[in-house]
Amino acid sequence: MSNLGTAAAAFLPSDGGLYLDCAAQAPRLRTVQAAGRAEQAAADSAWQRGPLPPSVSTEQLRTQAARLFDGDADALALVPSASYGIATAARNLPLGPGEAVLVLEGQFPSNLLPWQQRCSECAARLVGVGRQAGQDWTSAVLDALTREPRIRIVALPQVRWDDGELLDLDRIAGQVQVIGAALVLDLSQSLGVLPTNLDRWQPDFVVSVGYKWLLGPRALAWLWAAPRWREQGQPIEQHWSARDVGDSWHFPVAEMPPYRHGARRFDAGGLDDPVLLAMSGAGLAQVLEWTPAAIADALAIRTGALDAALRTLGLADWITPGHAPHITALRPPERRFEAVSGALRSAGIACTHRHGLLRIAPHLHVDAAQMSWAAQVAASGR
What is the pTM of this model? Predict the structure, then answer.
């Protein structure tokens, strides 16, 4: 396991506040800031070549990111956002009239809106999975897969974006395979912390943003494509960098050049900015050095300290059951929500407020004692 005892020093200081909103944007790493500034300084003298051309930096970054998926760099495309990747999946997966796409009620819109659009185009249905009292999301999904006979696409996260509840993708993917549906995963709230098992899950497409838990900048995300789509998939856009013209850089009018190898056909245009590539690479390098497993263990201690403090304060019912090690949410009574939210805000504790939940998502810049203190502050508003 990596030694994370000094990990907090890797982040820029937070000016006295307690930032617990990493599910929205991770705090900036010093190395990421330095990498971006160095490349920006080099860009100020555009006539001077940098140490590596963007094409080489892109492939190095692709190889880095592949270690968090299944190790195959040919499976990955660089895209600007998770929604772009989901839209690519929606464009390619077959779906006909009367067939259905399964999503969760309250699912993040990046993994909802593209499916709404696709269903409207082909007279398909969107099945929103809710859950009964006392039921977890995994059971709710499995029930829906049994109940709905015409599901052709299952589009899910690994972790709920709003309260951090985990979905058991091992169980869900097994049932998806039984019914012969396609699986599309949004790992934006889990990649970099939780392990992936793409061999077991057998998804058609997987997406993740490059910020949040990958500690990079916005505007660069990842799309993983199963082998069949690397050979026959249709990208959203057509641009030169996704095509293989060798060294000639000649694009004849009569015939389009072939796509580059693997999922590179899905690469979006304009993502070869050296600043973006350098910052993304620095974030990935830190995640890989610390290792997702060690990060998960360390963050479980932090959210565990929050839960323990809430129990001590007599607020066990505020705890989200079955939450991930890195994301949870406080569940104060509706009548006290504004008071609890205000107490956290007044104390300089940053978190996301959504639909009666106060999402808490720490990274290694905070410690267990600070998480216990956050519980005490929240309790002061009850």
Answer: 0.95
